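Summary for the lay section of the report: proteins are chains of building blocks that fold into shapes. Here we show the chain for Helix-turn-helix transcriptional regulator and then a coded description of the shape we predicted for it.
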Amino acid sequence: METKNMITALAALAQESRLAIFRLLVQTGPEGLSAGKIGEALAIPPSSLSFHLKEMTHANLVTCRQQGRFVICSANFDTMNSLIAFLTENCCGGNPCISIPSPVCSTTGKTKS
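The coded shape description reads as follows.
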């Protein structure tokens, strides 16, 4: 990903409600949650939730799809993994880092080692 895209994603996460929404969607996995359930879980009013989801969709951190009369939102794990890779690229100045196993999430809900 380009630096501009990384800045947009980080800026979208630099707000308390959006960070909470994204973390909830990551915990939920690829199946996602309805906008209503997100709002209920985090006590965010619908108008505010809509604004935050729009910001995160614009940053490509969240995808939303219509399912019947519900809007289902999911974390974009490809963007999340790209962001993590960007932040840790050339970690420790090219020297071997302390080995910390960190799973890479996939859109299938299974982790890769």
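Put simply, here is one thing we learned. The chain has one domain: 3-87+99-112.
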